[in-house]
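Tutorial handout. Part one gives the primary structure; part two gives the three-dimensional structure as tokens.
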Amino acid sequence: MSGGHADGTVGKALDLLDQVAGFGRPVRFAEVQAVSPLPKATLYRLIQTLTNQRMLAYDPDRATYQPGPRLVRLAHAAWRQATLAPIARPHLDALSARLGETVHLAQLDGGQVLYLDKRNAARPIPMFSDAGKIGPGYCTGVGKAMLAFLPEDELSRALDQQSWFAHTEHTHTSPDSLRAELADIRTTRISFDREEHEPTIICVAVPILDPADRPMGAMSVTSSTLRHGLDDLARLAPDLHETAAAIARDAAGLTLPQSRVIA
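Part two.
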């Protein structure tokens, strides 16, 4: 690959930050180089610039890089100012305490799911999702809950951005099959993950909508088929709807980015 980027140096630098953060641990230059399309000299120069700007932190003893203090500060500011997470926190706490199950809060990010917050169950279950992670939109309960309420033009763009990879035998692998389910979700305002992203992991999800029925986010209760069935989770939908409505009321009048899809 040539390393070219439509957004120039800024776009390359942001992609690089994503790559470093994506390792989930301190990472050596050679590891970043192995996943980067940039020439070695360009990559090194960008890493040095980001380190000088404290967007990355360098450990000379281990020769590793990781997200830096300036990036962490910006991330916390974005979490407070541009997401539902601070508004939703007391509602998630109350719901989690009442149900004793895993609760997620998410929003759309370019057609994918950005997990904003999470409360673990009284007996935690290992699963992919965690606050700050990006997941697929087409095969998660929260993703489908938000996709269902996008305007048609944004929905079409979002579906074009899905991988349609079959994570399990239950995963949607085409827009047509998903669209049929999204129509049902718009009617019921309830979405399910039927082991579509991870084996044994199931959830019930609802959208968090503004007064114009635009998705601001979504929330879910997640469990495992080893503990519950979908019918068990479906009975929790009224609790989710009540909590989602309370979050939407508290968010009224605040300037928050809606769940959108950018071409």
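Part three, for discussion. The mean pLDDT is 90. Residues 8-22 form the longest helix (15 residues).
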